[in-house]
UniProtKB/TrEMBL annotation:
Pathways per UniProt: Amino-acid biosynthesis; L-tryptophan biosynthesis; L-tryptophan from chorismate: step 5/5
Required cofactor names: pyridoxal 5'-phosphate
Originating species: Nostoc linckia FACHB-391
Top-level taxon of the source organism: Bacteria
Subunit structure: Tetramer of two alpha and two beta chains.
InterPro entries tied to this protein: Trp_synth_b-like (IPR006316), Trp_synth_b_CS (IPR006653), Trp_synth_beta (IPR006654), Trp_synth_beta/beta-like (IPR023026), TrpB-like_PALP (IPR001926), TrpB-like_PALP_sf (IPR036052)
Enzyme class: lyase
Gene from which this protein is expressed: trpB
Domain Tryptophan synthase beta chain-like PALP: 78-414
Protein name in the entry: Tryptophan synthase beta chain
N6-(pyridoxal phosphate)lysine modification, residue list: K112
This protein's UniProt keywords: Amino-acid biosynthesis, Aromatic amino acid biosynthesis, Lyase, Pyridoxal phosphate, Tryptophan biosynthesis
Protein's UniProt keywords contain Amino-acid biosynthesis: yes
């Protein structure tokens, strides 16, 4: 019988995270203090993050050991399975071989606990009592709530208001784990009150929610901030995904020609792609890598590569990234985890170096791809993951058109069981494709901070 699922034992789980900074041909541009315009120091980040995570953020070591306590918790769902999508291949009548790494088997249903558990561990080690964070679709918020419960940490989640309203079951899951969830923008912070004063009906954005969470953390010595994507240490923690996939593909006697991931902040994309990109940078194997983002929030394909704030209220340091401008508020598409104005600096840097291709997709085509996948493979993807599914199907059909067989690997970063209203709305014809506002982007980019080159 043809193998469908490639499974590793717990002993085969990675013992270290992979840091792509060790293999980059050019160093990542430094993070800047907005007040001075100079590279930020570890001491300046201590109000927000524990020292261990700050050290990981700037580390140039290729491998960073995963603590035993973190690996022990990982064993609840890791290693995750790698599937050969044989039924999807048949449905598409393609000569391509399609594999997907399925991260929806985690307790919260996505890849996010890979970093949530690590961040909670390091904060607990540092004596922190409370964590604040933002969340879009709720995958990150529920993951940090889960991790907080394991380590006895209080968790406060600012959830983007449109997602707070669209996804009540995600909110309920966070509260089940013990977190407090607040719709953002809120009246609880200065940043939230200022946004509401300008627009009382604001749907919110990840940039706004980050501002609120950072404001609360900075005001309390026993509270730290935890981010679910974008930062180097977050992407680092996700590389267990790609490392496992390398071993599983070796079991299958295969190696990908193409690696695909959806991108919002960049964490699940980095998790699947960075270990393969590292092999390419070291001259071991060549590979095509595709990052897929929503057309309603196209930072990689339509944004500017420049220094910008990671949040709307300008409480964060400046990072060089592809950005639509920190004041840009995307339309309320159901892929809430991809509604961020910027992109991870590491992902942006690698795209700028020409190592990764980027493309933007509309939500209706992505939902159609998700249904095609679900009816063939039986797993309903999260709206975010549908972007990777869409690009994978496109590549498989291109193989059919050209009469060539390629091996395609994509990250199915989460299931859509908490997103059923989105699928109900799609099948009822209530969803529409939304264009980003070029005028709003232009206004937001006009407000980019001035940084000396």
């Amino acid at each position: 019988m043809d193998t469908i699922k490639y499974v590793l034992t717990e002993n085969q789980m990675p013992k270290a995270w992979y840091n792509i900074q060790a293999d980059l041909p050019q160093a990542l541009p430094p993070v800047l203090n907005p007040a001075t315009g100079k590279p930020i120091t570890p001491d300046e980040l201590l109000p927000l993050f524990p020292l261990a995570l700050i050290e990981q953020e700037v580390s140039q070591q290729r491998w960073i050991e995963i603590p035993d306590a973190v690996r022990s918790i990982y064993c609840q769902w890791r290693p995750t399975p790698l599937y050969r999508a044989r039924r999807l291949e048949q449905a598409l009548d393609t000569p391509a071989k399609i594999y997907y790494k399925y991260e929806g088997v985690s307790p919260s249903g996505s890849h996010k606990p890979n970093t949530a558990v690590a961040q909670a561990y390091y904060n607990k080690q540092a004596g922190v009592k409370k964590l604040t964070t933002e969340t879009g679709a709720g995958q990150w918020g529920s993951s940090l709530a889960f991790a907080g419960a394991l380590f006895g940490l209080e968790v406060l989640v600012y959830m983007v208001k449109v997602s707070y309203q669209q996804k009540p079951y995600r909110r309920a899951l966070m509260e089940t784990y013990g977190a407090r969830v607040v719709a953002s923008p809120s009246t609880q912070t200065q940043a939230g009150r200022e946004i509401l004063a300008q627009n009382p009906n604001s749907n919110g954005s990840l940039g706004i929610a980050i501002s609120e969470a950072v404001e609360v953390a900075a005001a309390d010595e026993q509270t730290k901030y935890a981010l679910g994507s974008v930062l180097n240490h977050v992407l680092l923690h996700q590389t267990v995904i790609g490392q496992e996939a390398l071993t599983q593909l070796e079991m299958a006697g295969d190696y990908p020609d193409i690696v695909i991931g959806c991108t919002g902040g960049g964490s699940n994309f980095a998790g699947i792609a960075f270990p393969f990109l590292g092999a390419k940078l070291r001259g071991e194997r060549d590979i095509q890598v595709i990052a897929v983002e929503p057309a309603a929030c196209p930072s990689l394909t339509r944004g500017k590569y420049a220094y910008d704030f990671g949040d709307t209220a300008h409480l964060t340091p400046l990072t060089k990234m592809h950005t639509l401008g920190s004041s840009f508020v995307p339309e309320g598409i159901h892929a809430g985890g991809l509604r961020y104005h910027g992109m991870a600096p590491l992902v942006s840097h690698i795209v700028n170096l020409g190592l990764v291709e980027s493309r933007a997709e509309y939500q209706l085509a992505c939902f159609a791809a998700g249904l095609t996948f679900a009816r063939a493979e039986g797993i309903l993807p999260a709206p975010e993951a549908n972007h990777a599914v869409k690009a994978t199907i496109d590549q498989a059909l291109l193989c059919k058109q050209e009469g060539r067989s390629k091996t395609i690997l994509f990250n199915l970063c989460g299931h859509g069981h908490f997103d059923m209203q989105a699928y109900i709305d799609y099948q009822a014809g209530r969803l529409v494709d939304t264009e980003y506002s070029a005028e709003e982007v232009a206004m937001a980019l006009a407000g980019l901070p001035v940084v000396d080159s």
